[in-house]
Request: fold
Amino acid sequence: MPVFGRSLFETVLDGMDQEEEPVEEIGAAYAAPRGLRVSFVGFAEETNETEAAPASRFDWAGLFDDYAPPPKLEEPPVWLDRLSDVEISEDLALDQCRGASEIRERRRDFALANHPDRVGADYRNAATRRMMVANQLIDAALARLA
Reply:
């Protein structure tokens, strides 16, 4: 199908022959005007600077600091000596739950306190065992409700 009297292939070839703008010029075209700083979401705020802020000034390293997982615990967890099925069942207290939503909430709370990603490397096997048993108990409790 011709585009402006030429085939699409010819149009693409002509576009490839044209020189592209250097990266510096593209970045300068998007720089904030003097006295303004553009945030990541596109809002502008006034600054006391007299020159335009460079385009690479955004702090990418701190972007997800608020959403980072909590640091891994290197000290022994309080539940380290409670690894039997009966003790994990007592910690979950599923017999006190009134419905499926409450059981799912217990699963989330238990995972926040016991997940292997939240403990040091020395305690991961114990945390994995604890989470596996807890998930089996919770799945059985949900199956009984259904």
About this structure: The beta strands are 36-38, 44-46.
